[in-house]
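Internal tracking record. Fields below are filled automatically when a chain is submitted to the structure queue. Please do not edit lines marked as system-generated. If the sequence contains nonstandard residues, flag them in the REMARKS field before resubmitting.
Queue: standard
Priority: normal
Entity type: single polypeptide chain
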Amino acid sequence: MEEILFYIFAFLTLIFGALVVANPFSRNPVTSAMFLVLTIISMAGLFVLLHAFFLAAVQVLVYAGAVMVLFLFVIMLLDLKEEERRKVKKLSLVAGLISIGAIVGIFVKSLLATQPVKDLPAPMHDGATIPLGKLLFTNYLLPFEIVSLLLLVAMVGVILLSKKDLK
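SYSTEM-GENERATED OUTPUT FOLLOWS
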């Protein structure tokens, strides 16, 4: 049953994540933000399957709650109209596709270079917050800070991408 739920949540996460970026239903950024909420909730389901209940709750409360309210506030503050949006420039599109290709290449290269680990120790405290906090702020401090910078860049990106062209 866990495997079936894993595939369901993973499929939903990928589908909703793709709909955030390439939304065929509406060009309204609020629709993309709502798909991001669904992506975050699907990821919380994956955390529940990993018995990381605290992370699942934090995922929903902090990201789907607070961060999405911030993003929606920025989107609504800009008050975009359909005809006032910027046109996509070909150079920007090519640069974005090259960047995505480079990131996918690095990901595949690192995935192929890793060896599966056998004989992992059993988790000491299933879902405990103190070991998680110690691990997060010692061994994984740099990725934690990178995620916070990524959220800042995403917020600035929402502002820049939805800004009106001044002619």
